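hey can u run this one w/ iron/sulfur cluster bound, need the structure tokens asap thx
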Amino acid sequence: MARGEVIIDYQICMGCGICVQACPFSYLELSRYGNDPYKRLYPELEADHGCTGCGICAKECPLECITARKKDEKKDVPLS
Ligand code: SF4
Ligand code: SF4
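ok here u go:
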């Protein structure tokens, strides 16, 4: 189970793909269609990603529109 996730502000993102290149695990891909008329692709996490929330992608984003965070592990503990 992924320990982290990223939140991308698609109102700002320009689909440059720098974050995709930056992820050392290749968990991001340019596969999301936006609402713009140019049919550009925007980044999103792969379906079976294992994002760690390391923040490397966020540090590389020139528009600072991607936020990485670690999931609260307490929430993942099943109720007994
Ligand atoms: S936070 Fe780290 S593991 Fe997750 S997508 Fe970004 S670079 Fe990859
Ligand atoms: S680096 Fe930033 S602007 Fe470029 S695709 Fe990723 S989130 Fe969007």
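The helical segments are 18-22, 56-60. anyway lmk if its weird
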